[in-house]
Amino acid sequence: MREYRAAERGVRRLPRILLFLVILLSAGRKAPALPGDAKGKAQSPARVVRIQIFPGQGGDLVDAGVEGSIPVALLSDAAFDARDVDAESLSFAGSSLLKMGNGALQRLEDVNHDGRQDLVVAFSQQRLQLGRGASRVTLAGRLQSGEAIVGHT
Q1: Which pairing describes strands 85-92 and 138-143: parallel, antiparallel, or unpaired?
Q2: Which of 18, 65, 87, 102 has the most CB atoms at less than 10 Å from its CB?
Q3: Could you give the CA distance from residue 49 to residue 128 in angstroms, rounded to a whole number?
Q4: How far is C-alpha 71 from the geometric centre of its chain's CA atoms?
Q5: How many CB atoms lie within 10 A of CB 62?
Q6: What is the value of pTM for the model shown?
Q7: What is the per-residue pLDDT for 57?
Q8: Residue 146: other Cβ atoms inside 10 A
Q9: Nearest to residue 123, comparing CAs of 67, 48, 61?
Q10: Across 41-127, where does the E strand assignment appear?
Q11: Percent of the chain at pLDDT above 70?
């Protein structure tokens, strides 16, 4: 009887899981809120932003543990201006920001040729914290207004 009730609860949870996935994948540009921060306060949903690794190079293969840097572009669109990002708040798979060859932490460039300035930053490839067989890498940070942002490869 106990196994039946557990299975029944799982079936009742299925619509919630599907709803969660629909919200996450929707074009509403907001990810579901996290349950709470370390102090137990509810967090606002993170704005989902589009990112491109190795912009302009056509590849997206990341090899953790290898020396070098990974350029990542945060792509502006009609609803998001990458110039509003607090670059120093960014992390990519647990790796912090690196200075570029010219000593800057960031540069603005129209990476995808849509007429909007995109933000390009670099991260240490050696410091990436990826699980074995990971197929998705997450960028997290904040806008200058304090709003959380997240992007996935």
Answers
A1: antiparallel
A2: 87
A3: 20
A4: 14
A5: 19
A6: 0.68
A7: 65
A8: 9
A9: 67
A10: 47-48, 50-53, 69-75, 85-92, 95-98, 107-109, 118-124
A11: 65
| CA 30 vs CA 16, 81, 149: distances in Å | 17, 15, 9
CA-based R_g, the chain, Å: 18
CA–CA dist 4, 10 (Å, integer) = 10
Does residue 135 come out as left (phi exceeding 0), alpha (psi in the -120 to 50 range) or beta?
alpha
In whole angstroms, give the CA distance from residue 74 to residue 50: 6
Share the mean pLDDT of the chain.
75
* Contact in structure between 15 and 115 (CB atoms under 8 Å): no
Q: What is the pLDDT of residues 87-145, one digit of tens each?
A: 999 999 888 899 888 888 999 999 999 999 999 999 988 888 877 777 788 899 999 99
**Eight-class DSSP state of 45:** P
Q: Are 95 and 128 in contact, with CB atoms under 8 Å apart?
A: yes
Contacts of 75 (CB under 8 A, 6+ apart): 49, 50, 51, 52, 82, 111, 112, 116, 118
